[in-house]
Amino acid sequence: MRLSALQKYILKECLNVKDFKINRAKLGGFYDKRKKKPRKNLITKIIARSLERLINKELMIGYGIRTAHKWFIKEVKLADKGKIEAKKLLGEQVRLPFKRGKISN
Predict the structure, then answer these.
(1) Would 10 be classed as within a structural domain?
(2) Mean pLDDT in each 10-residue stretch from start to end of the chain (105 residues)?
């Protein structure tokens, strides 16, 4: 599955939290590490769009408020499919090619 750098960051951050549930305000830390930052009002718009796309891919569950026209996402939680994808992002342990033989006593 193809994910942006921000989406990968969101999945990894949720994986590091105890109950896999994170507040949306904490996700702005992605842009603290960047040299070239977008404007403040664009950051919230970009994060909201990324969260909505992760929810559409069934990787996350969003918690928030629903109005007649729009969703306001307050918190997000990793879904089961998202946990699997986040663990893949961390990397897999390489299996060494040891030969298994009989152990004689």
Answers:
(1) yes
(2) 90 90 88 81 90 94 91 92 90 74 66
